Amino acid sequence: MPKCSKHQLNLLRIAHQKAPGLHFHLVSRYFPTFLPFFYFSSFALSPNPTPRSEPEKDEDDELSVSGKIFKSGPQLGSYKLGDATFYSLIENYASSGEFRLIEHVLDRMKREGRVLVERSFILIFKACGKAHLPGEAVKFFDRMVNEFHCKQTVKSFNSVLNVIIQEGDFSDALKFYLRVFGANKMSFQPNVLTYNLIIKVLCKLGEIDRAVETFREMPLKNCNPDVFTYSTLMNGLCKERRIDEAVFLLDELQTEGCLPNPVTFNVLIDALCKNGDLSRAAKLVDNMFLKGCVPNEVTYNTLIHGLCLKGKLDKALSLLDKMVSSKCVPNEVTYGTIINGLVKQGRAEDGAHILVSMEERGHKANQYIYSSLISGLFKEGKSEDAVRVWKEMMEKGCKPNVVVYGALIDGLCREGKPDEAEEILYEMVSKGCLPNAFAYSSLMKGFFKKGDSQKAILVWKEMMSQDARHNEVCCSVLLHGLCEDGRVREALTVWKHMLSEGIKPDVVAYSSMIKGLCDAGSVDQGLKLFYEMQCQEPKSQPDVITYNILFKVLCKEGNLIRAVDLLNSMLDRGCDPDSTTCNIFLETLRERNDPCQDGRLFLDELVVRLLKRERKLAALRIVEDMLVRCLPPDASTWFRVIQKTCKPKKIQDTLDEFCKSLYGQ
Fold it and tell me: What are the start and end residues of each PPR repeat (predicted)?
């Protein structure tokens, strides 16, 4: 409701006392937007207000307050209807989203042959966007010319296009654009905003080449790209990992005399950091300063996040100091990123110091920062510090969410205190915070670790009664615990229950059951489950742990040939062996083979086969394992490793460096 000053209110009160009905004339002429307000206040303006009787239901009941004034005003002689009155009504109805009443006004204007202006339709389009009705916006756009003879311009088109895009209907937005401009019969041409919007649409649809093509045709249509055009296209290219093309666009932008803004640089810096190219990202920051474009908190946060991903925490902390010295205020994201990075590196105590610094600068930590710290401190065996951080969080009024509760429950279970963790879970439920799969599974693991499998089963049953969504994760934990405890028969019961409930076992569940069956002597049943596993969806495909379970069983039975066949199948399916795989085969070759072998030739051949499949990282891990065991690869294998993993120009440098480190020369 519009505001009215005291002076205006007094003026209208006096006018109403002298001549009832005159205030309508004054309002409609001098303060048209106050019409609804003065309808409400008409009794307050009257010196002797009398209550109205309840009116009979008629067509007036459909009208709003401003609509009733609109209809009754001319009858009282208060004012004459003008186009401005209709426009005010449309504006009022559009702001409140009353589309049915908008139709009343439009119908009246059409019958009276009144002129409709584009500005009114743009207000209607915005109302459609607010009401999440992009289809209605398109219909109103089509009716502008066909029904109301209102000239369309690029402004009304852009308004409708933006409504469709805001709803995320990118395919519909493209169709609307092509329908309007496809026939080239429009009286108007796209402007820079139109191109910015449609380039955004094409990027969202993954049509990057079409976006580039549209960008290149802009100058041909006498429409020069602006900084937002470049930024939008660069963002699309970066999302498709075409970073070099995006960097080229930055150079082109500056060549064209268009000044890049922080958003432009941030798009590229973010892409380079995610790609691990921190040196180029740092150069871009230097370029920002040279162009007089000051890095903002997003720039610094992006760089700090990139450094944390690469494990360069000291540089991240140094950048934080630089950020503060540059008078760019760090926010919760900045501190949260650094604290999380420190925790991942096993430096949770340093993270706790950063938390103190953060609070000293007036920032409050959120639940995710606390959960990261609590989890990290427990993993580092600093349970007392973790509990202290929890208590401080509660004292500071930060209400724990499901993530923080989960971190505390998991930490207590790691410390062998599942009973205390269970109390926290009950407290969590009593405060209306529903435990998630992580909380339940952590508690179950805690009881299994303590040797109390019966309590773990009770937790699972309680979870079942609360929310069936947790079944998939928790059933896997239950199966693993029961099989490790030798309770295979009960595990099979749970397995059948999972299948009957339509729950698809994941790789953990399958691997646990296979191990349980094999340990119980049912190797054939375990292999049968393994072959069934290979036909499942990706999340249930066997991993290296699954294969190692079967390698160990087959080698223990002396069935080395079948184990090697399974190893070949493993390599063919894209699963890489690990150190445990090597141990299993080496022990078998040494203890069960006649004559005894040290396994060097076996591992050497495994490296060659991995290199042939372009699995360089896996091959290097096996080579490292061979060197640790003092089983150096063959000279030809060394040559293959160097050839596959080093750039041609650096092979000699690599060999020289290796020789120096080996012989100390």
Answer: 191-225, 226-260, 261-295, 296-330, 331-365, 366-400, 401-435, 436-470, 471-505, 506-540, 543-577
